Description:
Elements: E1 6-11, H1 14-25, E2 28-29, H2 39-46, E3 56-60, E4 68-73, E5 86-88, H3 96-110, E6 116-121, E7 131-135, E8 141-144
Amino acid sequence: MAREIQITFDCADPAALAAFWAEALGYRLQDPPGNFPTWDEALDAMGVPPERRNDASAVTDPDGSGPRLFFQRVPEGKQVKNRVHLDVRAAPGLTGDERMAALEAEAERLVPHGAARLQRHEPAPPLGAGHIIMADPEGNEFCLD
């Protein structure tokens, strides 16, 4: 039996990082629990003090097919390169110049939202299709693939 997965990010600002990844992936912020119309109302009912309301956030795939991304506040900053990263499939089915142009367009779209462009890898057939390494607003590396 297959298992559901959730991808968890340790971060300094869960709300901001959740907003970035929602934009990057076409996800949306997770709805508040129960019948609460807003997260503030839900957190009020749970007794969560205002200073703790950015301790966690989550985004979900509106189609329900992709994994939930969970963001949790931690005291320490990012220290080294990620050992696991996300590949954002921004050019499915494309090859060569057309693929790289689509990846460049996606990189340009994400930079104003806080992403940083780190490195471009040119196509190297037969196995290397080309990709762009990026970082999210807190420095977590990901690839536009």
